[in-house]
Amino acid sequence: MRDRRPFWRRRLLYPVLGLLALNLVCLAGFTLPRRLEERNTEQRVAGLQAEVAAQRSVTLALRAEGAVAQANEADLRRFYEELVCRDDAELLRLLGDLERTVAEVGLAPGNRSYSYEPEKMTGTRLERIRITLPASGSYGQLVALLDRLERWERFVVVDQVHLREVDDGADLSITLSTFCRSLGEPQA
């Protein structure tokens, strides 16, 4: 009995199917590892991009901190060069200006007193001068004085204000602080 199938089916079908299977195996053998490598590379790129973004944010934060540090350094330099008394003569001018300012707002100044206190901040060459200034006048005059001190070109800190009412107005005592450069070496 003769096989009625065509020649290609009888003789070529299995070799063609074998070649097709071999081709599929080769295709899978070459393309799957490459595709996995591409996927790995894409994941590494995404991870590196995230790391770059994180480093950029850290860099921006450090730049901002650097700008703040530079501004602080400029403020500190201005504080030491312009706002802090450099010698006793400048301190006496400040005390005289303070008494004039008290008189200009209408307060009657009493006897002032002051004391030196070395600052306890490591590395500073500052002395705090506490100025106690008794005066008498009205509450409005006190407010005017505090307003002037707030806008004053000299650096003073209002530490305390004691106000006591009397018949013709108020007695008050203002404690202020200013800073002067110390003549000694920086404290340890």
Approximately how much beta-strand content do the residues carry?
Answer: 15-25%
What is the CATH architecture assignment of the largest domain?
Answer: 2-Layer Sandwich
Query: So, the CATH homologous superfamily of the largest domain?
Result: Ribosomal protein S6/Translation elongation factor EF1B
* Separate helix tally: 3
| Number of separate strands | 5
The topology string of helices and strands comes to: HHEEEHEE
Helix content: 55-70%
Number of discrete domains: 2
Major sheet characteristics:
5 strands, antiparallel
Explain how this protein is built.
With 188 residues, the chain is α+β, with helices and mostly antiparallel strands. It has two domains: 1-83; 88-181, Alpha-Beta Plaits (2-Layer Sandwich). Helix content is 56%, strand content 23%. It is built from three helices and five strands. Strands 1, 2, 3, 4 and 5 form a five-stranded antiparallel beta sheet that branches. It is rod-shaped. The termini are far apart.
Entry keywords:
alpha+beta; 5 strands; five-stranded antiparallel beta sheet; 56% helix
